[in-house]
Every structure is written in C-alpha cells, then in structure tokens.
Specification:
The complex is a heterodimer of chains A (155) and B (506). Chain A has 2 domains: 3-74; 82-143, no CATH class. Chain A is mostly helical. Chain A has helices at residues 3-23, 40-66, 81-101, 103-117, 123-143; one strand spanning 28-29. In chain A, α1 runs antiparallel to α2 and α3 (81-101) packs antiparallel against α4 (103-117). With 506 residues, chain B is mostly helical. Chain B has one domain. Chain B is globular, with a radius of gyration of 23 Å. Classes of the chains: A mainly alpha (155), B mainly alpha (506). Chains A and B meet through α1, β1, α2, α3 and α4 of A and α8, β2, α9, α18 and α19 of B.
Amino acid sequence: MDRRKIDVVLSTLLIIISVIILTNDNLVEGGVETELGSMFLPRIVAGLIIIFAAVMGIESLLKLLRQAKQEESEIIVTQGFSGVLVYIGIFIAYWLAVPHVGFLVATPFVMFSVAVLLGGRNWIPITLVSVITPLLIFYGSSHFLRVYLPTWTLS
Amino acid sequence: MIENIIGGFSSILAVGPILGIIAGVIVGIVFGAIPGISAIMAIAIILPLTFYVDPIIGITMLLAVYKAGIYGGSISAILINTPGAAASFLTAVDGNALTKAGKSGKALDISLFSSVSGEVIATLVLILVAAPISAISLQAGPIEKVFLLLFAFTVISTLAGQSISRGLLSCTLGMLFAMVGLSTITGASRFTFGITELMSGFTFTPMLIGILVMPEVLNVVRQRKKSHSDMAITRSPNPADNRISWKEYRSVFGTILKSSGIGTFIGALPGLGSSTAAFMAYGEAKRTSKKPEEYGKGSIEGIAAAESANNAVCGSSLIPMLTLSIPGDDVAALLMGAFLIHGLTPGPLIFFEHTETIYAIFAGFLITDLFLLGIAKSGFSFFVKVASLRRYYIFPCVTIFAFTGAFTAGQNMNDILILIGFTVMGYGMRLVGLNPAIFIIGFILTPYLEQNLDQALAIVGTDYHLLFASPFSWVFIALSIFFVYSSVYMKKKKAGNSTQAQEVTS
C-alpha cells in the first residue's frame, strides 16, 4: 500500500478536525476566567497541527503528482493484516464478554484463540496454559493486589 | 549528599526492595531476551503491579526491569541475530559472528560485563550530577519553564521523528489528547462531548499499554507465518572460547570507559536515545581501534563499545527527567508516568520533597547492577530456554497481562475500551510514520506547559515582551533553532548519502 495516499487523506482529516477546534466554541463547557482561557492552548495546538499536517500532506501529494519513486518507508506491507483484524476482533469480543461471563471463563477462550491465531497446534499444552494462567492471575490479583477482576454475572 | 546516599542504601537494603529488584531483573532479562518484546513493553506490563507497593519497591523494580531488559535484548541479538531494538543491532553483528564461530559464551560474557560497567558509570554520574542540576533548575520560574518545555518538545520531535513534520505532528497530537477532560486550571470540560467518562481524561496506563505495547503484539501477529528461531548457546570444546578472561576484559576496559562516557552524554540529551549512543560509540571505538578490520566479524571490542554505550543511556536518560521534568525518550516518559502514579512528581523539587525515596531509588539503581551481574551470569541457560518459548505461548499471556494491567488502573471496563482504541491508534501511527513515543511525551508534558504558561501570563500581564526578558528564554530559543537546523542538516545529509549509495549500486 502506498503510504503517501494515506498521508494525504490523514492530513486532510487532521486539518478539518483542527479547523473545527479553531472555530467551534461548543467544545468547551463551564470553567472560570483565567489569563489563558480554556481554549487558548487547544487552539494553538490545532493551529500547529494544521501546519505540520499540511507539510506532511503536501510533501506526499507532490511526490504522488510527480510519480516519484517510492522510498522503503513509504510502502506499507499489508501482508498478514487479516491476522491483525482477527486479533482486534478477539480483543473486542473479550471486552464485551468479560462483564457478562467473567474473567475466568472468557480468558481461556481468548488465550486459546490467540495461540491458534499465532500458529499454535500443540493442543494440550496450549489448553493447559490457557486455563492455568488466568487462574494464577485471578488469584494473584485478588490476594496480593486487591484487584478484583470481573466475575460471572449471568445468574 | 553523602548522608543522603547512605540513607538511600539503608532504605533499599530491606527484604521488600531487594525482592523487587530480583523480580525486576529476572522479568527484564526474560522479556528483553524474547524476540518481539522490548524493555519498554516489559515495563508497561509490570507497571500496574507496582501500584500497590511502596514507591521505593515499585520504582526500583521498574528500573530493574528497564536495565535488565536492555541487557536481555543482547541475548537474542547474539544468539539468533534478532536485535530486539535498534540499539542492539551492532551487538547482533559482532555477537552473532562469534556465536557462529562457537564462541557464544564469550559474546554473552563481554556483553554482560560491558552492560553492567556502562550502567554503573552512568548511574554514578546520575547520582553526582542530578542534585546539583536540580538546585540550578530550581531558580527557573514559570517563564523559563515554558521555554524549557517548548525546547524539549522541539528537540525530541525533530530528532526522534521519522521526519521533522511527522515528529512535531506526533507531539501536537499527544498534546491535543492531553487536553481532553477537565482543565486543571479553569475547571472547564474540554472535548468531552457530554460523555461523563471523558471528564477525567484518558486513563494513563491503558493508553500507554495501547500506544506502546500492543502495536508490538500486532506486529508479531502480522508476521505470524515467519518461522521460529531457536536460541541455543553454542559451545566450543575449548573452555577459553566460552568465557571472558580478566586479560580480555582489561584490554577492552578503555573502550568501555570511553563508550560509557559517550552513552552517558547522549542519554542526558533529550531525544537522541540508545541507538544513537551505540552507533556513535561503536564508530569511535572502531576509529581508534588497533584492529578495526575485526569490527563486524566478531569483535569483542565492538560488542563492548555498543553494549556499554547502549546501557549507559539507562542511567543518564533519567537526568533530564528528574531534574527538569523532561523525559528524554519513550522509556523515560513511561518511567515519568510511573513516578507520577506513585505520587512523585519528577522535577527539581523531588530532591527536596522526597529526598529519602529518591536516594533509595538511586541506591537501588546501583544494587540492580550487582544483581543483574549475578543473576544473568548464573542463569544464562535458563533465560535462553525461557526466551526460546514459542510465540503462541508467550503472546496470549502478553495479551492477558495487557488486559489485566489496563483494568487494574481504575478497575473499570471502560479502560479496556481505551486500551483497544489506543492499540489501533498506536499501530496506525507506526504505519504512517508517526512516533508513538513522542505522542506520549507530548501527552505527559502538556499539563505542565499549560500550568506554567498560565502562571507566566499572569506574571507579565499585557507586557508580553517580558516573556523574552530572561536570558534563559533566549538560550532555549537559540538551542531549539540550533537543534532544528542540525536535524534538517543531518536528515539532508543522510538522504544525500542514501541517494549516492543507490547510484553506486545501480
């Protein structure tokens, strides 16, 4: 994938967001009067973002228009991206499941899924690791750190 | 100062801190040695565990993870030619050449001894220099601090970024995210869009793990089809090939001293980092060596130069953080977050408000070197075995540690959403060449900038020219311009060199 195209899109997006910050007064609520005011620094930062994003975007756009040869850092290797999407999917499912089924039930499935995603096929050791690790973390965090991980709440 | 140092040692020589250091060293070596896991990742994962212990135990444990993690990176670099970080690249070149010659024991030994030597020297400099610098920086008022912070933002962004605009953009994005939530000055809620959960801003730990740690896991997932490299210590039948003799150590001691000096100096400057130190020290050692032809082909001197400089950065990178509240690199930014979580605000006042704690941490920093030497030397084979574990055992555990670490911060499931969001953002930033470490530095320093700017404007009123009345203001402006100019010059020179190289090869 050509990073320069992403640069152009990203710069445009950042410039739009920064213009909104510069022009919209509803992004701040309440507060007392001070020398600076609540939106002074955010607006300065927004202005700087416009400048730096524009430099980045224009640089990439010019290269695209000139059809300049891509540098190594301008190529985004997309091979293996499906795995990344699956991993993020697993993590989102984990986040959704834990409040309902609890840490001890959800975690072994997540560990097992990530292990399989990473190419693990030694079923018995993977299963053992997936079951023992959450038990140890759950016990350790509740007894030593006084951190109580979510438990089953279906009942 | 001597009294404070002795007091520090008496605080650290207790069961809790010593156990913390031992645990930190073991975790650091193991994590550092696993290809794909860096020292910063180890610190971020361990960080939530330290919330519940005394700051002396917690911070010394994190520093032990840091030091041991940097050393651990050289194990995978030497044995399987897989440097965990750019700083270990040169160690991998010479170390792996020795491994191929059946002398991995010698390479691991010299790497350990030079790492520890470099760390000890830098730590001594830290102890001797930090307090006097902090006494000077105490003289700085809000106006000077504003210019100092602007200088820090400029230097770090221009030197550490892939390009100057990308570095500065990463920094300003971090600044923007820092302003979400209630303003500490006006009490106004900014960019919350009516979401009450955003009132307190983004929780630091999940954001940190998401931005800095999880993208590394995603990288491993993306490259999951790459074959696994087994680590093994290759042993030559000749015992002399498997260890470093006193004579050999003495022969490279000068190089270690010089490289540690380079590493300490580079580490104390914000934004340059350990890889710059390693490359500069290696180049200097090669330039002055009696056997420059051996460099790159298994030179003990080369490993000593790269490793001592690389590790010296650990201690000296804390100098700007502790004296001026400026984290010089990503690890220092993370450690600054850890200090803040433990109720210690890095800056000149830390030496007066938390004297006992800070000197105990210094003492712990020195003692860590002794434990690192002992534990690493006695457990080489064990660490190599653990680090050789297949990634499908390691990374599911890292995933769960990240989840638990993010949850631990506030015992709140919303923090997991922050973790997921910043994981995606951190990975995206890497893809487009934005620097997540600079983002974090911008995030951490912005509240200080806003606070000092407000105070500075309250002092000068409408006479804005008074902002430039202090000579410090002009010094920092001049330094910022110098660093930007030199960065532009270096980047142009580098681009010119690579174009020339391409022309030669074609």
